[in-house]
Amino acid sequence: MHDMTERLDNHPPELIDDPQRPDVLLASGDWTFQNATILLGLLAKTVAGPKQIDALRVKKLDATGSRMLIKLQNALGLENPAVLVAPELDTLLQAVRAVSGKSKAPVDTTPPLLRMLAAIGSWVDNAWHNVLVFLAFLGQTLVSLTESLFNPRHWRVTSIIHHMQVVGLNAVPLSMLLNFMVGAVVAFLGATVLKEFGAELWVVELVGVAFFREFGVLLTAILLAGRTASAFTAQIGSMKSGEELDAIRTMGLDPIEVLVLPRIKALLLTLPLLTFLSTMAGILGGMAVCDWSLGISPEMFVNRLNDELSPRHFWLGMSKAPVFAMVIGLIGCLEGFKSESNAQSVGEHTTSSVVQCITLVILLDALAAMFFMELDL
Amino acid sequence: MSDAIIEVRGLCNRFGDYSVHENLDLDVRAGEIIGVVGGSGSGKSVLMRSILALNRPQAGTIRLLGKDALSHDPASRAFIERNTGVLFQNAALFSSLTVMENVMVPLKEHSTLPEDVMTELAMIKIRLAGLEPEAAYKLPAALSGGMRKRAGIARALALDPELLFLDEPTAGLDPISAAGFDRLILTIQKALGLTVFLITHDLDTLYTICDRVAVIADRRVLVTAPIEEVAAYDHPWIREYFHGPRGRAARTVTEMT
User: Fold this and answer.
1) Residues 6+ apart with CB under 8 A from A186
2) Contacts of residue A95 in chain B, CB cutoff 8 Å?
């Protein structure tokens, strides 16, 4: 049996010309991975000449050390059996020799310009393909949605309620806090600018219009894009890599009906509710600043809102909530389906789903703003 | 000084009220292949995770290569990590890296060798594990289950460790691949002089390559001995395991060959 301490001690490797025998290189010490850097140094220093390598005094040899011995032999241009090792180490040396043949990494010989053009081409093709896939997915989901409306057995109420809690209820504190603070900031900005004209009272309209029409729904949608779309993608993506989607299909179930519809329905139901709460929080933030720094009391604030603002602003804002819910749900789920069975891909698609959702939400909001403006609403 | 390369004493592992190990002792000798068997949920993997410090036991000592495996001392941790290779049950290859890059991960972390030397060493490990050089540039997803496990072995061998841990290496392989994998383990162990800690359910593996077998039951190691002695041990689980229909078949085949 080996003694543990001796086994674990490290003996630096050496490589010298044998003083007794000319033409013989004498190797000793531990030829191991741990000493690989030293070994490379020794190998670099050897010059052609020796006819034999005597490694009988090598104490410890591992695969790395064996490879170094073979490299040395090749560098000196020696034929077998030019390397002598202790019999118990010979198996290893032979095993490593057997797998030491030359093998080259495949090299890409395409010119760089062509590769760049190919990359751009495949990017464009990919983008177009993504648009088609999104439209197909939208269509498929709408068909399933319509079908499930007439078929109470497929409502999956438990699942919907679960997602409503995760997507909606759990996001209430964060969403309200965010909107409250943005409401306060908008009021501050308004106050600073409007003071110059002595029109501080108009801050009420500013905060009201901003939150009823735009900020309430937009901020909530952006928050959910970050919070929910990413979760959907990661959930479905990891289910896909665990072959769970295939299991669903083989059981005769439709992944869209089982996974996508409950999520989208939950979003369609909760995003408007969340938007309402967030809008109120934003107004509250504005009201707080008005009371604190402009001397507009909450009663005055509410009265002025009532007198000056028509309810249509509120309904315009709310009308966008279901559209944003659809966008977030669809992209979140679709990116999950698109991811491949590895961690890298799930990560990439999660990022992509958040980026797409936020971009689309802001884009749609801008289009809607222009549309309603043209209609004089 | 003890010649045990792994020495477990009085190990206790509990999860909440559920106790997996109570006063478990185990010795693994240098240069042997030890097979660890036990029913599902008997704590084979927990034992391996404890030895690898992936799981902190409630009580007990574990010495690995003469060092305290449970200490937080960075030097002894680094020493242990450099000298142990692990093949997890599903190979646990990094899915976004090629086989070659997978094998290079530990090399890059633990050495300052030039890139081309590292590639060369990685290729040797990949071929020692029985993979064709072409497989080195593939992603794990493009490999079959057996090839993934071989790639996992290559990564475990990257640093030329003293100790190799294998968690159910033949699970999920067809019998021919499983037999091939057994031979591979034996060849590598003989050539590199490794100590192998092997968790398995596979009776063929136990009969063909294990020097000794440790049976975990009743929250401790019941017996550690060559397989004939273990099979003769009187315990309900061991009787059921070795003398059930599958056990008999495996034994007969081994006696015939």
Assistant:
1) A206, A207, A210, A211, A215, A282, A285, A286
2) 128, 187, 191
Question: Hunting for tokens 């630096």 — which residue is that?
Answer: A12
Name every chain B residue with its beta carbon within 8 A of the beta carbon of A68: none
Q: Do B128 and A95 touch (CB under 8 A)?
A: yes
In the structure encoding, which two tokens stand for residue A242, read together?
């665990």
pLDDT (0 to 100) of residue A2: 46
Rounded to whole angstroms, how far apart are CA atoms B38 and B241? 9
Query: Among all residues of chain A, which has the CA nearest to that of B79?
Result: A8
Domains of chain A: 4-98 (3.30.750), 155-374 (no CATH)
Rounded Cα gap, residues A334 and A343, in angstroms: 17
Q: Does domain B1-75+194-257 have CATH number 3.90.226.10?
A: no
Dist CA A63 CA B230 (whole Å): 34
Q: Per-domain residue ranges for chain B?
A: 1-75+194-257
Q: In the prediction, which pLDDT does A1 show?
A: 40
Task: Decide: residue A82, CB within 10 A, 0-12 exposed, 13-18 middle, 19+ buried.
Answer: middle
DSSP B256: H
How confident is the model over A116-160, as pLDDT tens digits?
A: 999 999 999 999 999 999 999 999 999 999 998 898 888 889 999
* Residue-wise pLDDT tens digits, A67-105: 888 888 888 888 777 788 888 888 888 888 888 876 666
Between the alpha carbon of residue B64 and those of residues B145, B196, B237, the distances in Å are: 31, 13, 29
Angle at B105 between CA B100 and CA B107, to 5 degrees: 95
The Cα–Cα gap between B200 and B202 comes to 5
DSSP B133: G
Q: What is the ipTM of this complex?
A: 0.79
Q: pLDDT tens digit string along B33-67?
A: 999 998 888 889 899 999 998 889 999 999 998 88
A346 near A241, Cβ under 8 Å? yes
Q: Closest chain A residue to B137 measured between Cα atoms?
A: A105
> Measured between alpha carbons, how far is B124 from A99 in angstroms, rounded to an integer?
6
pLDDT in tens, B167-226: 999 888 888 889 999 999 998 898 888 999 999 988 888 889 999 999 998 898 999 999
Query: Chain B window 114-143: which residues touch A at a Cβ cutoff of 8 Å?
Result: 114, 117, 119-121, 123-125, 127-128, 133, 136-137, 139-141
User: Are A100 and B124 inside 8 Å of each other by CB?
Assistant: yes
Residues forming beta bridges with residue B63, ordered by sequence position: B7, B68
pLDDT at A120: 95
Q: How far is B248 from chain A (nearest CA, A)?
A: 34
B127 close to B121: Cβ distance less than 8 angstroms: no
Q: Which of B120, B137, B192 is the closest to A106 by Cβ?
A: B137
**Phi, psi at A54, each rounded to 5°:** -100, 105
Q: List strand residue ranges (DSSP E) for chain A, in order.
A: 14-17, 24-31, 52-61, 83-85
Concatenating the DSSP letter of every residue in A42-57 gives HHHH--S--SEEEEEE
pLDDT of residue B145: 87
What are the φ/ψ torsions at residue A107 (nearest 5 degrees)?
-110, 135
Whether pLDDT at B247 is above 80: no
pLDDT of residue B77: 87
Query: Taking the model in full, what pTM does it have?
Result: 0.72
